[in-house]
Write a structure and sequence with these properties.
Number of strands: 19
CATH architecture of the largest domain: 2-Layer Sandwich
CATH superfamily of the largest domain: Endonuclease Chain A
Distance between the termini: 43 Å
Number of domains: 2
Low-confidence stretches: 465-469
């Protein structure tokens, strides 16, 4: 088999990382990111959908030398290192939200007054689009890419306890359990993320930044490498604009990964609303010897608009795929706590056949493919003759399922070997309390069905935002419209 990653088609660049790994949940992510930033000498660039300077990167008093809140930590870092410059780039929808967050505005003012801290808002996107990348690069020597923003609600431990005193808002309100993922890597792959961040910065701010040379960041002790040395693919979504050509590498990568699957596709996503992803899955589900497909989703999208847009589309797509899954190889699950309360899934991951891994900011929805700005990274274990990377990908998948099912990695591995099927493995381990709950297609109102079928709230790129309804629709192409 040949390497799936192809620069210019399903990825932007293919670069070497000496070490690569996946960080599960924000407690460990914040600690690793903080560890890297503590070593910064010249540059920290954070590109995000949202920031909240009030959040804690570690428990109060855990490190007596450095502040625990993001806002104070950033100020402390530049005072400590005379050559360090910190840049933060946020999607411009946060302009008013930032001002209403209590002391957050005070932190932003202090950042603005400091000559070596620059916080900017990026408005270079189409109407209704967003900048959704979540990137951190330190001295061009180590980088993070995933689904975790440095903002409120993200922090949680892998236990996802019903009662977690540290899982609170800055005002002290208890927050819901939250599951998320990020990747970490070094080497030339990290330098490439630095280049991507600088391109975004130049487009948003007009300032050309120089790369950083001779970084000396030590790999965080808390993170065990999953692979390395390894070639890492960097894939992007970039919308069409008057002065910008569209980039659809992420869409191509998803389709290629699904098409290449032999036995198993495991995915975690905040949404399941992309007609292109669903159509690609339908092709494989109809095959007599196609792969099993397991998708982990939250029980309900967050907010008030997202459920109307994403949950209705999910219902329609799952009903359609139910008609195109004659061999019963598709299942969608929601994780719940010990008290059977929903755990919100914000992760964006796909593992295929213990061979391919993709992790980043993009979801299974239309806008992640063509309307929003996204960044994912990918790893192909095909050319690893030792088989160690493939085994690590299998362990990662089993580790994630163990977290969701409330058991051990060994329990999942034994059940998978015994059952010879991931679907049967999950069903054999499911039970009351902390577990996975199968998705049930809900009844939709006529309005909900119309909104979903016409992609009103999840447009398929900037061209479709103002397109007439007769030319758009969730069931264009291969997908069968479910019976009402």
């Amino acid at each position: 088999m040949t390497n799936l990653l192809e620069p210019g088609r399903n990825c932007w660049r293919l670069e070497k990382a000496e070490k690569f790994s996946v960080i599960i949940d924000a407690e460990d992510y914040f600690l690793a990111a903080r560890d890297a930033m503590l070593q910064a000498k010249k540059s920290i660039i954070i590109v995000g959908w949202d920031f909240d300077a009030r959040i804690r990167l570690c428990h109060t008093g855990e490190d007596r030398d450095a502040p625990d809140t993001l806002g104070s930590f950033v100020l402390w870092l530049v005072e400590r290192e005379p050559q360090l410059e910190i840049r933060l780039l946020q999607w411009n929808s946060g302009r008013f939200r930032n001002l209403l967050r209590g002391t957050n505005a005070w932190y932003l003012l202090q950042w603005k007054m400091h000559p070596r801290i620059t916080a900017r808002l990026d408005s270079m996107h189409p109407p209704l689009g967003s900048h959704h990348q979540k990137l951190l690069v330190v001295d061009d020597d180590i980088a993070f890419c995933g689904g975790i923003d440095m903002t409120m609600k993200r922090w949680d431990t892998r236990a996802h306890a019903d009662e977690q005193p540290a899982r609170t808002s800055p005002s002290g309100k208890q927050l819901q359990p939250w599951h998320d993922l990020a990747s970490i890597f070094d080497g030339d792959a990290a330098k490439a993320i630095g280049d991507l961040c600088r391109l975004r910065w130049t487009r948003a701010c007009g300032e050309v930044l120089k790369p950083v040379a001779d970084g000396q960041i030590v790999w965080p002790k808390t993170v065990t490498p999953l692979a390395g040395p390894a070639r890492i693919g960097i894939a992007r979504s970039q919308p069409r604009m008057a002065d910008q050509q569209p980039v659809r590498e992420i869409e191509a990568l998803y389709i290629d990964m699904i098409a290449s699957a032999k036995t198993l596709i495991y995915a975690e996503s905040q949404y399941f609303a992309s007609r292109r992803i669903a159509a690609a899955l339908a092709r494989r589900l109809e095959e007599p010897d196609g792969p099993e497909v397991v998708i982990i989703n939250p029980s309900q999208a967050e907010g008030w608009l997202e459920p109307l847009a994403m949950d209705t589309a999910r219902a329609r797509l799952m009903a359609s795929l139910g008609r195109q899954d004659p061999h019963h190889r598709l299942a969608l699950y929601h994780p719940v706590t010990a008290n059977e309360q929903p755990i919100y899934v914000h992760a964006k991951l796909m593992i295929v056949d213990d061979r391919l891994l993709r992790i980043g900011s993009s979801n299974f929805n239309n806008r992640s493919m063509r309307l929003d700005t996204e960044c994912d990274v990918a790893l192909d274990a095909t050319n690893d003759a030792s088989g160690a990377v493939s085994q690590n990908l299998r362990n990662l998948r089993h580790d994630l399922l163990a977290e969701h099912l409330g058991c051990t990695l060994e329990d999942v591995g034994s059940a998978f070997t015994r059952e010879g099927s991931l679907l049967r493995c999950i069903e054999s381990l499911r039970g009351p309390g902390r577990s996975l709950v199968p998705y049930a297609v809900p009844d939709l109102s006529a309005l909900q069905t119309w909104l979903a079928d016409n992609e009103i709230l999840d447009p398929d790129g900037p061209e479709e935002v103002f397109e007439q309804l007769s030319k758009r629709g969730l069931f264009r192409g291969r997908l069968r419209q479910p019976r009402n």
